[in-house]
């Protein structure tokens, strides 16, 4: 009887751990240090393709609101740089947008000529299974000397935490099933 209670307690703790780990989201600053701008010829398409976006991640647009804005648009509007009927418009200069579903999320600057100059981004959230990093991908530097990852480099860390959370769920189900 005591062993069954112990197994259930471990299972509950694993489920709680998994829940807490899954709730962690990555924050991606669009354009990294340059931000959301037309200065500097930022390639937002290239920027986005180097990221692995997940549901729950936060997309941060930082810009000067007197010169830029952020409009979420449909795919045809994105392709045509048409800002006449956006889904949403953001104007604060420090806009955080939480990704709530898989698929493409299209954003552009609605100021005249900015989208045509390349100020648009396609955030594509894929349905992907999280895999563990290979041992060669793990840092060989002691943890104390390793700097914290920047928001844009944080995706692998969060992917690994999500893997641990999924393993926790699996283990909890396994333990509960045999308790």
From TrEMBL:
SUPFAM superfamilies for this protein: Cupredoxins (SSF49503)
Keywords on record: Copper, Glycoprotein, Metal-binding, Signal
Domain of life of the source: Eukaryota
Entry annotated with the keyword Signal: yes
Keyword Metal-binding on entry: yes
PANTHER family the UniProt entry points to: BLUE COPPER PROTEIN, OS07G0570600 PROTEIN
Protein name: Phytocyanin domain-containing protein
Organism ancestry: Eukaryota, Viridiplantae, Streptophyta, Embryophyta, Tracheophyta
């Amino acid at each position: 009887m005591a062993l069954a209670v112990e197994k259930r307690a471990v299972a509950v703790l694993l489920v709680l751990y998994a829940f807490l780990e899954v709730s962690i989201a990555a924050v991606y600053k669009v354009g990294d240090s340059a931000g959301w701008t037309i200065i500097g010829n930022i390639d937002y398409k290239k920027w986005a393709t180097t990221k692995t976006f997940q549901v729950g991640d936060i997309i941060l647009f930082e810009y000067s609101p007197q010169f830029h804005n952020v409009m979420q648009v449909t795919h045809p509007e994105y392709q045509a740089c048409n800002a006449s009927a956006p889904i949403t418009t953001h104007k604060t200069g420090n806009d955080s947008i939480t990704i709530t579903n898989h698929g493409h999320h299209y954003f552009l600057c609605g100021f005249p000529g900015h989208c045509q100059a390349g100020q648009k981004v396609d955030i594509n959230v894929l349905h992907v299974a999280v895999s563990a990093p290979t041992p060669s991908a793990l840092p060989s530097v002691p943890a104390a000397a390793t700097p914290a990852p920047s928001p844009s480099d944080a995706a692998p860390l969060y992917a690994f935490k999500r893997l641990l959370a999924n393993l926790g769920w699996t283990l909890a189900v396994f333990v509960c099933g045999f308790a």
